[in-house]
From TrEMBL:
One of its GO terms (cellular component) is endosome membrane. Gene3D superfamilies: Vacuolar protein sorting-associated protein 35, helical subcomplex Vps35-C. It comes from the Eukaryota. Keywords: Cytoplasm, Endosome, Golgi apparatus, Membrane, Protein transport, Transport. One of its GO terms (biological process) is retrograde transport, endosome to Golgi. Belongs to the VPS35 family. It is a peripheral membrane protein. This is Vacuolar protein sorting-associated protein 35. It comes from Escallonia rubra. Its main location: cytoplasm. Pfam families: Vps35 (PF03635). It is found in: Cytoplasm; Endosome membrane; Golgi apparatus, trans-Golgi network membrane; Prevacuolar compartment membrane. Plays a role in vesicular protein sorting.
Length: 797
């Protein structure tokens, strides 16, 4: 309630002040219009008296000041016109000093002083010195700051700078410099003094008000940076030492932070580089509460950008030993500020690392030195709980990856892995993901077992459970995405040397089998396929002539694969394991290793019998088994008969009749393998197809018994297509009579009233008949072969 009342009172005072100002401005304008200098000065002084108030906050005072400023610009124009009409500027300068109150008098003096300098009736340095000294008459912080801000504003284009019209024998750049520095010093003193005005309970409010006024002080530094005559030598010998002296001596944390930031932002990068030692020497002298990490970070950011702007400037960095100076300064600041939070230290080292990567990209020792210093700061702290600090560490560790686009470079840094023990599990995962994404993005190939070992130590946050109590926080979608990234990473591990590649595979196997059962379905398949790639590279190779047991050979790799797939039984992931066994069996077939291939098939069959109970999974599995077995050429008669007999037996035992039928007619391909004459048994093909027909017929009878309709004829049409396939391939046991009989059966069934209408089946049958007709139309031997087949229905196109 008291705050709102204070604001209302302030608004009333501001309104009253504006009203008084406008009223006197009105009379001043009337005097100006009639060229009445005496009244113009009288009313302008009364108008400016409104700025003597102490009741307004800086924000409200600024509003009043800007209105007065606009009126003073008009008054200045009037003074210029007066001098043109013959009025002496010196007389004007003396006349305004008769104003009754000091504040209006000084505003008028600054206004006339601007005209005085422009008239060149006196040396600019004398007028400037006079004005800056007289402004000391106002020691109230707010009023003094705005007065000196006005002085700076009206004189900034009238300084005796190089190339300026105000430069002369008596006026030099040093005079301009002295004026701005003196004004800056006095303004900074007023600004710092504000904190001591008023009761202690309002300190927070005063600090907020001071913060609002900081730009008034900072504008002086901007003016300094715009003086053309301030070269590097003058900046190093005069400007920077004088400004830093004021910064250090004021002992005010707000002023020190803001002014250091101003110095960094307004002066040129090359000046900072050449005066780095002077600038950095001030840092340890600042108040402990100053946010020095941000100041130094911004300095290093500017220097990094400067280094990145052109390769031509890099020798300057080497010449001044910028890295050593920055590194020493950061060490001194961290040592001096014993209470600096971890995030502050990490931020400083992160900025230094960015600087080093820009300026010295070839100096890995510098990178490792920075990482080592940062790890030293973390030692003894345990797992970091500050999220800001861990975020900065991720930024720090990501910088080398982004610069070099090569994880192998990061693996050379001895201090890089040491950070992982200080990161919580969540951040470990984030960092691991950053590393993996870097590898995938840059398609980096990790080519030695030692590097893989080091890499997997870095990304252990994703390949093993660091905390056993994560079930409550488990997010399946995130987990799946993370493990998919790990799977893609495993595919990036490769070496052309079989021996080294086998070592890589063994290293990966060791890590992923220790990673917990949840991860195995994601990480085992890429390892298996990477191993099979190696097997195919070794295809046809006999066991090592040297007999060295460590030598990479297909048999040894297959043993390793068998052990790896067995681990999936703990998940369980029987369907995935079955697929992988079949893949390995096919690879063993290509290597002419019959016992190995038979063993993989045996394992697949055991899984099918003991683990896969879901009917849909059984259908998929049996078709995978049939498809793989059909491509196998290595098996002898006995082994092949055993495996095909099992496959047909599984097919006939599926739960649903249609599934049985399709699996059984698929088994017909096991007895007729193209390009393998010893695997062509037409009689057994016919047996499978007849058995499929019986099952299809039984399916129709069951449908008729349960639903009152005989169901679709789709199965018969599918079997007809199988008959046509083997007939075309030259199987003598598939006769025209059997094909003709099937066509007649399907035609009759489709015309029966008990058959359920099925547009898909109709279209399929019509397409099949069109194919037969197409073969007839070919002419020659093919046409003769198909000619006896008759259609009982017309073929629609």
């Amino acid at each position: 309630m008291m705050i709102s009342e204070g604001i209302e009172d302030e608004d009333k005072w501001l309104t009253a002040g504006i009203a008084g100002l406008q009223q006197n401005a009105f009379y001043m304008h009337r005097a100006l219009d009639t060229n009445n200098l005496k009244d113009a000065l009288k009313y302008s002084a009364q108008m400016l008296s409104e700025l003597r108030t102490s009741r307004l906050s800086p924000h409200k005072y600024y509003e009043l000041y800007m209105r007065a400023f606009d009126e003073l610009r008009k008054l200045e124009m009037f003074f210029r016109e007066e001098t043109k009409r013959g009025c002496s500027t010196i007389e004007l300068y003396e006349l305004v000093q008769h104003a009754g109150n000091i504040l209006p008098r000084l505003y008028l003096l600054c206004t006339v002083g601007s005209v005085y300098i422009k008239s060149k009736e006196a040396p600019a340095k004398d007028v400037l010195k006079d004005l800056v000294e007289m402004c000391r008459g106002i020691q109230h912080p707010v009023r003094g700051l705005f007065l000196r801000s006005y002085l700076s504003q009206v004189t900034k284009d009238k300084l005796p700078d190089i190339g300026s019209e105000y430069e002369g024998d008596a006026d030099t750049v040093m005079d301009a410099l002295e004026f701005v520095l003196q004004n800056f010093t006095e303004m900074n003193k007023l600004w710092v003094r504000m904190q001591h005005q008023g009761p202690a309970r309002e300190k927070e409010k005063r600090e907020k008000e001071r913060n609002e006024l900081r730009d008034l002080v900072g504008k002086n530094l901007h003016v300094l940076s715009q003086i053309e005559g301030v070269d590097l030598e003058m900046y190093r010998d005069t400007v920077l030492p004088r400004v830093l002296e004021q910064v250090v001596n004021c002992k005010d944390e707000l002023a020190q932070y803001y002014l250091m930031d101003c110095i960094i932002q307004v002066f040129p990068d090359e000046y900072h580089l050449q005066t780095l030692e002077i600038l950095l020497s001030a840092c340890p002298q600042l108040q402990p509460a100053v946010d020095i990490k941000t100041v130094l970070s911004r300095l290093m950011e500017r220097l990094s950008n400067y280094a990145a702007s052109s390769a031509e400037v890099l020798p300057e960095f080497f010449h001044v030993e910028a890295f050593a100076k920055l590194s020493n300064a950061i060490g001194q600041v961290i040592e001096a500020q014993v209470d600096m939070p971890i995030v502050g230290a990490v931020t400083l080292y992160s900025s230094l690392l960015t600087f080093s990567l820009h300026v010295h990209p070839d100096r890995l020792d510098y990178v490792d030195q920075i990482l080592g210093a940062c790890v030293g700061k973390l030692s003894g702290k345990g797992k970091l709980e500050d999220s800001k600090a861990t975020k900065q560490i991720v930024t720090l560790l990501s910088a080398p990856l982004e610069k070099y686009n090569d994880i192998e470079t990061a693996l050379k840094l001895s201090n890089y892995p040491r950070f992982m023990e200080y990161l919580d599990d969540g951040t470990n995962k984030v960092m691991a993901n950053v590393i993996i994404q870097s590898i995938l993005k840059n398609k980096t190939c990790i080519s030695t077992a030692d590097k893989v070992e080091a890499l997997f130590e870095l990304i252990k946050g994703l390949i093993k459970d660091l905390d056993e109590n994560l079930d409550d926080e488990f997010d399946e979608e995130d987990f799946n995405e993370e493990q998919s990234s790990v799977a893609r990473l495993i595919q990036m591990l490769y070496n052309v040397d079989p021996e080294e590649m086998l070592k890589i595979i063994c290293t990966v196997k060791k890590h992923i089998l220790a990673g917990g059962t949840k991860r195995l379905p994601f990480t085992v398949p890429p390892l298996i396929f990477n191993s099979l790639k190696l097997v195919r590279n070794l295809q046809g190779q006999d066991e090592s002539v040297s007999g060295d047991e460590s030598s990479a050979n297909p048999k040894k790799i297959f043993q390793l694969l068998n052990q790896t797939i067995e681990a999936l039984s703990t998940v369980p992931a029987s369907e995935l394991a079955l697929r992988l066994y079949l893949q390995c069996a096919e690879a063993a077939n290509d290597c002419d290793l019959e016992p190995v291939a038979y063993e993989f098939f045996t394992q697949a069959y055991i899984l099918y019998e003991e683990e896969i109970s879901d009917s849909k999974a059984q259908i998929t599995a049996i078709h995978l088994i049939i498809g793989t077995l059909q491509r196998m050429h290595i098996f002898g008669v006995e082994n092949r008969d055993t495996l095909t007999h099992k496959a047909t037996g599984y097919s006939a035992k599926l739960l649903k009749k249609p599934d049985q039928c399709r699996a059984v007619y698929a088994c017909s391909h096991l007895f007729w393998v193209e390009d393998h004459e010893n695997n062509k048994d037409g009689e057994r093909v016919l047996f499978c197809l007849k058995r499929a027909l019986r099952i299809a017929n039984a399916a129709q009878q069951m449908a008729n018994a349960t639903r009152g309709s005989s169901g679709s004829v789709m199965l018969f049409i599918e079997i007809l297509n199988k008959y046509l396939y083997f007939f075309e391939k030259g199987n003598s046991h598939i006769t025209l009579d059997s094909i003709q009989g099937l066509i007649e059966l399907i035609t009759t069934e489709m015309q029966s009233e008990t058959v359920t209408p099925d547009p898909t089946a109709d279209a399929f049958f019509a397409s099949t008949l069109r194919y037969i007709q197409f073969q007839k139309d070919k002419g020659g031997a093919v046409a003769e072969k198909y000619e006896p087949i008759k259609f009982l229905v017309s073929i629609t196109s």
